Amino acid sequence: MLLPALALLVAFTHYPAVATFIDSFMSTPKGNRPSTFVGLENYRIMVEDPIFWQSFRNNLWFALATIPLSVGLALAMALWVNARLSGQAFLRMAYFTPTVLPMIAVANIWLFFYTPTYGLLEQIGGMFGFPSHNWLGDKSTALGAITMVAIWKEAGFFMIFYLAALQGINPSLREAAAIEGAGRWFFFRRVLWPLLMPTTIFVLVNAVINAFRMVDHVVVMTRGGPDNATSLLLFHLYEVGFRYWDTGYAAAITVVLLVVLASVALAQFFLMDRKAHY
Amino acid sequence: MSAIEFKGVSRRWGDVTALHPSDLRVEPGTFAVLLGPSGCGKSTTLRLIAGLDSPSEGAIFINDRDVTTAPPVARDVAMVFQNYALFPHLTVADNILFGLQVRKTPRAVQQERLQHVLSVVGLEQLAARKPSQLSGGQQQRVALARAIVAQKTVCLMDEPLSNLDAKLRQEMRAELRDLQQKLKLTVVYVTHDQTEAMSMADQVILMNQGRIEQAATPREMYAAPQTTFAAKFIGTPSMSLLDVNNPALASSAAVAARPSNAATLGVRPEDVSISREPSRGTSAVSATVASVEYLGADSILRCNVGDALLHARVLGQARWDANTPVFVDWPASANHWFDANGQRVIV
Ligand SMILES: Nc1ncnc2c1ncn2[C@@H]1O[C@H](COP(=O)(O)OP(=O)(O)O)[C@@H](O)[C@H]1O
Ligand SMILES: [Mg+2]
User: How much distance in Å is there from the Cα of B39 to the middle of ligand 1?
Assistant: First the structure.
């Protein structure tokens, strides 16, 4: 009885992973030259590829900024909205919008914010007399600008999970704490935060995965530029795989990406699982 | 001095009035019960005392101090919630100590008080458990322990026994009452169950549609209900109410001698005597037994008097059958008169 399920699982998840793993040790087939076993050659290319390392560094910074900021912002917004929720469907809608919008549309909106000379950011900056700045065109600000978009999009998404969890908390707990004189911060630290722990873990796992998986907005906004300043691992993989059709090398990058994600997920699983039970 | 006092307190939400302007007094060390049907404003009243809600108008005093705008913590009140409101992730001990931890009470004092309340509510063995590992009755005791560990003078309880089964509820009633006496607490207790109210209260505050209908001791409330609502709400079964113009009552001497403004006559079931023959030709009223509810020690007869219904409590051994024509009678002292507005007529 397990067989059909197993077949599906193998066909859609295990087989591609194993095939990718095997491909990463093979050369890329070209013209009439078939693919041959090349050992660690693809990995050697990777280690010597400066764009790979730049993408890796970029991605690390991108993850380091988006994960805590989007989760923190999501929690803060959820607490704020939850306190004022009664009958304010419009307000809730405003916060849910980021989730409904596809990342490409989000990127287009932010593209308008960042546009030099007539973008929204420029116009506001101009009102206060700041000099004009090309946010996406400047190597020093492009990655930051891309990161902002991801934080905005992710925070709106994660907020929904926090909001749902907060709505599930018995409102008399707050009243019981108020009778005892617990301040906001005490109540958050001693009651809300522990009760939200399962949600936080779920959201964190998603935040980590997304930090290494988001690429749509890079494609739309910068195409990895200027000078690879906004190239992330998955974007680099996309370039290698689908622009240069170097499938062997692309497979090697994919393996690295999978290893990174799997180890982070496992670490979280073991470190945080203990704290989530009550 | 009074423990709790309302002066013209009301609470409105838009055009919903949960509490019309009301006066209320609860003496220190007494067990007061807010009684009334669902939606009559009991919880609202309790939450106004607790400071979880603020009045639309009027002033609230606790221990003679004006606390109308004071936050809950400044009111010297503890509260037991209907769903207990225990923190699910904290142990029994941490739940009980929550308030003391907020106030940074020294650890030694915390432990001493914890052990004391645990023994008072009989939970010594369960201090390390989480609420989900406790039965409903045990959770109830934790909520109670959390309320008394604070050593506040006023303890508020919103239907604290409504989630327990009937037998446990009965036991807890007596236990709560003992505890209140022992700790000399002022308790304000909300319930919709009149038996619970009558058996526990020093003072019953009967509410109806956002108004205080009557505030009195259980005995006074039973002996002299001030309104037809109070008459109908208290007692199992409650007082029978008969229209004085009911033609079937024409032969009754009681009705003949009624006060001039009386519109309704009330008679308690236990005051009604019933016989197959008119007893020495007095004022007996003829009726028909409609149904019999046998309860063991006694039976409740539902009798048709004209088109009205009259309850009579008779001894359990006596056999009465439905559709038997009978004569019902009661002493003049058992008459309760109410005017056309449902207010008691004093004779
Ligand atoms: N926050 C609120 N907003 C609007 N109406 C309320 C609110 N709280 C209570 N009410 C209304 O006030 C009335 C009394 O409610 P409540 O005090 O909870 O009754 P009880 O506890 O006696 O069942 C009800 O009609 C209820 O719908
Ligand atoms: Mg209620």
Answer: 6
Q: Are residues B160 and B301 in the same domain?
A: no
> Could you tell me which residues come within 8 angstroms of residue A194 by beta carbon, excluding any fewer than 6 positions away?
A278, B89
Instruction: List the single residue in B with minimal CA-CA distance to A186.
Output: B102
Per-residue pLDDT at B247 exceeds 80:
yes
Q: Chain B interface residues facing chain A, Cβ-Cβ under 8 Å?
A: 50, 52, 71-73, 77-79, 81-83, 85, 87-89, 98-99, 101-103, 130, 132, 146, 150
The pLDDT assigned to A99 comes to 64
Question: ipTM for the complex?
Answer: 0.84
Q: Do A191 and B87 touch (CB under 8 A)?
A: yes
pTM score of the predicted model: 0.82
What's the average model confidence in pLDDT over B249-263? 83
Rounded to whole angstroms, how far apart are CA atoms B92 and B127? Answer: 5
Side-chain-side CA neighbours of B23 within 13 Å: the count stands at: 2
Look at chain B and report how many structural domains it folds into. 2
Q: Is residue B197, in this structure, part of any structural domain at all?
A: yes
CATH number for B154: 3.40.50.300
Does residue B208 have a pLDDT over 90?
yes
Tell me the pLDDT tens digit for each residue of A61-79: 999 999 999 999 999 988 9
Is residue B260 over pLDDT 70?
Answer: yes
Residue at B346 is within a domain: no
Range name among A187-191, A238-242, B57-61, B216-220 with the lowest pLDDT average: A238-242
Domains of chain A listed by start with CATH number: 3-275 (1.10.3720.10)
Rounded average pLDDT over A183-201 = 92
Residues B65 and B165 in one domain: yes
State how beta strands B264-267 and B336-338 pair.
Answer: antiparallel
Which amino acid is residue B281, in one-letter code?
G
Residues of B in contact with A192 (CB under 8 A): none
**A177 lies within 8 A of chain B by CB:** yes
Q: Which of B206, B225, B244 is the last residue of a domain?
A: B225
Long-range contact list for A27-33, CB < 8 A, 24+ apart? A27/A248, A28/A245, A28/A246, A28/A247, A28/A248, A28/A249, A29/A247
A190 Cα to chain B: minimum distance (Å): 9
Q: What is the mean pLDDT of residues B201-220?
A: 95
Q: What is the pLDDT of residues B275-305, one digit of tens each?
A: 888 766 566 788 999 999 988 889 999 999 9
Q: Is A30 helix (H, G, I), strand (E, B) or coil?
A: strand
* Single residue among B197, B225, B253 that ends a domain in this structure: B225
pLDDT of residue B197: 94
What tokens appear for B240 in the block? 């029978």
The pairing of strands B186-191 and B31-35 is parallel
Whether B230 is covered by a domain: the verdict is no
Residue B102: predicted pLDDT: 93
Can you give the residue range of the structural domain that contains B297? Answer: 236-338
CA B38 to ligand 1 centroid distance, Å: 9
